[in-house]
């Protein structure tokens, strides 16, 4: 699959042995003590290089652990290796990762290797990041859980993914694993400096049936495959049969208004993304090894002014306010994790259109691998409210438990 | 003085020659084209190592420019060298910098070398950072202007000073130079990701007489030397003679209430600072080369919980709200830049107590070297309102011009 760019074999074996001793002595450091974890290669590690998915930085030793990695080591977790990322966690899969469920297909991106490693069962959890659709999309494609918390909820210091929508994301085998890893991080190093950090219990919140869910079609709906739409419709009917009210734009004009607004999410996100990439791309364009795609993005950034950026930030704030207003009447919004199965081929990591709304909104989102398309996994996505990650996780746990385990 | 840790002699000469050509052809890139600038050694530079003032990182090549440095190069400025910082921009002067006005005294810190280089007239401007008192205190000690903008107003990406009160600061010969450098940065790389960035004109705002200033005594008042207090009183009388209303706690009970609140600034700031240093100090304690002072701080951080941190953030928010309410009735608040002259000796960089309020508040502040104590420079500090940096600068320019030039 090409999921890992580096494996810390000796260090991992030693860390696992130390964890075994702690468990035997009944003195585990945390509930993730001994859990093997992959780390996206955009996140710094003291004992392994951080290549950022770019030939410009291949083998680069930053000689320190990111906040998340430090916290997980303190909690006793075993850092197994660095997982492949697209170039600078953006769009280009310079080291393509194969999908564990069909190796002719992409694993998605940018957290490609983390999703593939979890989807293949190599590790129960891995760290990713998301600024556009980089955690939930590959999770949907690779058949694992993808959790992107509220913006700022997990300390991303020491990650090279540092834009104003960037979040540390967790890829995991189950919602509980995703929460436990996130919780182990926040209790040791907090959220981003100045943010209160992920709020909720140490262990995963207890499953709780939602009373009312909203279907969010987003701009991606017309791009979704027929089978993906059918799978979503069946999931919706299933929830209704279980007693959950699942409403859509036909029942709630305010929801329809929000859907019309959120159609702008792609354009607004990429305007913000482009401006924020003036640095470091403005320097990197002088060097070989930068992809043509990022050169075009750097050129596009040069056409923007600071006032354009400020206008995009204001628009983002308005959209967030509208979401806060409409979402208050639902336990969560329900949509697809991706437009369908992972695309065949390795040169494109797929369309992030279903993931951009939660990224733009800065709210928590989780993709559960409960649907299928073309015989491949497909995620059912739940989107929550800012700082109410624990409520979203309780709803997700209930939905997860309502499906029979394989 | 030991102001520079590295000088890029050849690159600076080449950059200066290129700038000369542009000016001769009447095609300067900006108003800072050709300006020589020092860069605090906590900020990354592509062509020079970034040592962070620590033997752990001495000679470390990060191989990229920070956002501010990239922007200044794009604007044609000449990056002369890296200036000495205290260890990790915190308290310990592991490479002591001598004061240009009396080499038996400290230059202050943590932006020690930047303040000394500007104070000595080696460069007209230098980049510093401030999370506690690291730009305005050394500016006061070294006889230069120190400008700390609103939190987030200048993009600090690529600086290792990344706490929730950290700002890029400018040390400069005049208020105009400080503004012009800041403006050149923000127009090219914006503020911190997600922030609107420094607001105001490209060139320095026109001097404008304030109508009403508030004296802010802060918790530092009792620590200020008698001569510093006398110098401040004389400056106040001078402003009154020039027709400015300068009020204090006796005239405004709300101002007195705010002064009582801001007395907590030191304790709240250090609680936040300590928690936020859990990373990376939590890893660094395993290595040699970390000072005892930072080891103690790391140990103190371990006694804090995430809830303690959240409580400190909430208190900071309350204090900011009280400041916003009281400060609306004044053009600026007026106080000292430091407790007095730079202390004799090189093992301590002086007391930041006068600089912590603006740091905690996240509001702009500027120190003007207009006072004296023990025959040494002493700053007159003006503190403004969040995002109203240009208004503060217009007031500062007027105060500056009201003093006779040497």
Q: Largest chain-chain contact?
A: A-B, 39 and 39 residues
Class by alpha and beta content of chain A:
alpha/beta
Write down the CATH class of chain A. Answer: Alpha Beta
Number of helices of chain A: 13
The parts of chain A where pLDDT drops under 50 for at least 5 residues are: none
Cross-sheet strand order for the largest sheet of chain A: 1-3-2-6-8-7-12-13-11-9-10
Strand content of chain A: 15-25%
Number of strands of chain A: 13
List keywords for this structure.
two-stranded antiparallel ribbon; alpha/beta; globular; homodimer
Task: Describe, in plain words, how this protein is organized in 3D.
Chain A is α/β, with parallel strands linked by helices and 406 residues long. Chain A has one domain: Amidase signature (AS) domain (Amidase signature (AS) enzymes, Alpha-Beta Complex). Helices cover 37% and strands 17% of the residues of chain A. In chain A, the strands form 2 sheets. Chain A has an 11-stranded mixed beta sheet, with helices on both faces. A two-stranded antiparallel ribbon of chain A has the order 4-5. In chain A, helix 7 runs antiparallel to helix 11 and helix 8 (265-276) crosses helix 10 (292-302). The radius of gyration of chain A is 20 Å and the shape is globular. The two termini of chain A are 23 Å apart. In chain A, 61% of the residues are buried. The A-B interface holds A 46, 60, 62-67, 70-71, 74, 155, 157-158, 162-164, 166, 186-190, 193-194, 196-197, 275-276, 278-280, 282-284, 306, 309-310, 313 and B 46, 60, 62-67, 70-71, 74, 155, 157-158, 162-164, 166, 186-190, 193-194, 196-197, 275-276, 278-280, 282-284, 306, 309-310, 313.
